[in-house]
Amino acid sequence: MDKKRKLSKSSKKQSDKDKQDNASHLPGWPGYRTRDGRSGYDPIDTRTEAAHTAGTIIQRLFTGEVRKPIYLFLLGILGMILITPLVLAIAEIRNGNTLPWSAWVFLLITGIAGLVILINFIKNLIKLFTR
User: Fold this and answer.
1) Which residues, in sequence order, are CB contacts of 99 under 8 Å at separation 6+?
2) Rounded to whole angstroms, how far apart are CA atoms 122 and 29?
3) 22 torsion bin: left (phi>0), alpha (psi -120 to 50), beta (else)
4) pTM listed for this prediction
5) Cα 25 to chain center, whole Å?
6) What pLDDT score does 26 carry?
7) CA nearest neighbour of 104 among 119, 92, 118
8) Mean of the per-residue pLDDT values of the chain
9) Where are the beta strands (DSSP E) in the chain?
């Protein structure tokens, strides 16, 4: 009787190890919330999977591994939106209107972020068309 129990425990450990190697058995990965015996309606699993997907998209945007042009288009739009206030502020300065220093700090931060995003957009665009 003891041998059967030991045998079943070792086989159970082996199946747990196999589950850990499979990506669909990790929280957040696609397929985890619809695994065996689950309906897929668990709100925690759904949010975890959505967060994993969003994180993957953001990671690919900033590492230059974008495969879908819609994400690349959205990245370019975001860069243009962030850099526009800085360009308009520089145009106002050329007309003789000055801004307070706190406005300049905000505009420089958003402008630099927009410039970095636009540079990343151009790098992703080049990688997309040179494949």
Assistant:
1) 89, 92, 93, 107
2) 30
3) beta
4) 0.56
5) 21
6) 67
7) 92
8) 77
9) none
